[in-house]
Amino acid sequence: MSERIQPVKGTHDILPEEQGVWGRVRAAASSILPLYGYREIATPMFERAELFERSVGVATDIVEKEMYTFADSKGRRIALRPEGTAGVVRACVHHGRLRAHPLDKLYYLGPMFRRERPQKGRFRQFHQLGVEAIGEPSATLDVEVIALLARLLTACGVDRVELQINSVGCSECRPAYRDALVSALSARRAELCGDCRRRLTTNPLRLLDCKVPTCGEITASAPELVDHLCDGCRDHLATVEQGLTDLGVAYRLNPRLVRGLDYYTRTAFEAIAEGLGAQAAVAAGGRYDGLVEELGGTPTPAIGFAIGLERLVTLMEDGGEDPPLPLFVAALGDAAHRHALKLVEAVRGAGVAVEMDHSDRSLKAQLKRADRLKARRAVILGEEELAAGEATVRDLLAHSQARYPLADLAARLIEEERP
Ligand code: ATP
Ligand code: MG
Question: Ligand 1 atom closest to Cα of 122?
Answer without folding.
Answer: 28
